[in-house]
Amino acid sequence: MRIPRHVFDQxxxxxxxxxxxxxxxxxxxxxxxxxxxxIYVEKEGRLHLTESRFASEHDLMxxxxxxxxxxxxxxxxxxxxxxxRLPDGSRVQAVIPPAAPSGPVxxxxxxxxxxxxxxxxxxxxxxxxxxSTLLRSVIERKHNVIIAGGSGSGKTSFLNALSSLASDDExxxxxxxxxxxxxxxxxxxxxESQPSDLHGRGxxxxxxxxxxxxxxxxxxx
Length: 221
Prior knowledge:
The chain is α+β, with helices and mostly antiparallel strands.
């Protein structure tokens, strides 16, 4: 039985109490839970061990099971990997025993509430002004763009900033494995791949979504 949204919103704060304080503001970009008694956070690209703890592995598993029920996905020894979202949109990736022998491992990716623009990146010194001019030209001419980098390097934030350079009269279709992008345009359609159920049915791949998108009159993908 799936948990109603309002019930989940009320219970998540208590179930995830040890990390709730890290979910406020933009200071923390990632929360890493390595078992119930070890929690790291990432701030400005650096990892910090916190003093926060879950009381027991049972408490951490209770929080994860509540989350899995809300998103309508199985979480058990036969299905030990969970992809989900918290009410604020933070992305959760969890792995439980036996796939994680030392105990449940959870990563919570935070997303900035303040949307970055290319000009903001220039002001911060992250993008040289001459490169900014080049990027504006690339987006205006609708050239293909590949953004690559390591985990946590800012790929999503950079793409969000580039998206603001497109025109509001364009239809943009976004295809993602897990919804993260916050495209700053008016006409945006967001699609997300889906895993199969316990019987191997219902999977929707990135390839499936791309094929469908090509028939949805996109100006940009």
